[in-house]
Amino acid sequence: MTSLLHLDAGANRSSESVSRQLTALFADTWRARHPAGRYRYRDLAADPVPPLETAYCTLGRRVERHGPTPPARVHELISSPAEGRQWALTQPLITELLAAETVLIGAPMYNYSVPASLKAWIDRVSFPEAFTDPETGGSLLRGTRVVVVAARGGAYGPGTPRESWDFQTPYLRAYFADRGVAEEHMRFVSAELTLAGLVPHLAQLRPMAADSLATARAEVIALASAPAQAVSPASS
């Protein structure tokens, strides 16, 4: 069945959040197209994923020594209550990710990279062997579509003076590629210059900001309306 996992990572949970506006537009469009589809929403700011602890690491190392271990069998390797608690926090997140045909991530740029709330989710779902097919050794995420919706206060797109300061898009692209998500199944949509409407000295950039937001909205609607297999090659 068609399914969408929707993650919002922005600390600003008000209606002013551009990344949340855009992911909500995607989700609404997707649900209108797939009324029978499964939809799962997780607000990583309102319900933060706990940071990793020693017990997570010791359990992960034991799994690595053991070899390919499906998430359903990790419990067999747990050796302490602390490890059990860490796995109880981790397994539902992995299960959600594996069940999703499309993963939608709202990721405003914070200090040239991703919000800590999103990094905490990434760290926890990156449990050893979680996405390895025990039969083939391939990735269980090879058919997953990932759509990242970013909002940036400045301009970091191709050809801009701060293009090289964007550690957000390259990081997320590399992370999901390393987990086996195909390049053609990743798409990055960015609304740039979101501070232009607030900061007086950026007032001259407001028309460019409006154009960027309009383009992002159009891209989001198109991506949400398209079948997962019809995702165009990733761009930033």
Structure description:
There is one protein chain. This protein is α/β, with parallel strands linked by helices and 236 residues long. It has helices at residues 18-33, 54-66, 81-99, 116-125, 168-178, 206-225, and strands at residues 3-8, 38-43, 102-108, 145-151, 186-191. It has a five-stranded parallel β-sheet with strand order 2-1-3-4-5, sandwiched between helices. Helix 2 (54-66) crosses helix 3 (81-99). Mean pLDDT is 93; it is low at 230-236.
Q: N-to-C SSE series?
A: EHEHHEHEHEH
Mean pLDDT score, rounded? 93
The poorly predicted ranges are 230-236
Q: Summarize the main sheet.
A: 5 strands, parallel
- CATH class descriptor: Alpha Beta
Distance from N terminus to C terminus (CA atoms, Å) equals: 29 Å
Evaluate the radius of gyration: 19 Å
CATH T-level topology = Rossmann fold
Instruction: Tally the beta strands.
Output: 5
**How large a portion of the residues is in β-strands, by DSSP E?**
5-15%
Q: What would CATH call the architecture?
A: 3-Layer(aba) Sandwich
> How many helical elements?
6
Shape: globular
Number of separate structural domains: 1
Strand order of the largest sheet: 2-1-3-4-5
Structural class: alpha/beta
Helix content: 25-40%
Let me know the CATH homologous superfamily. Flavodoxin domain
Oligomer category: single chain
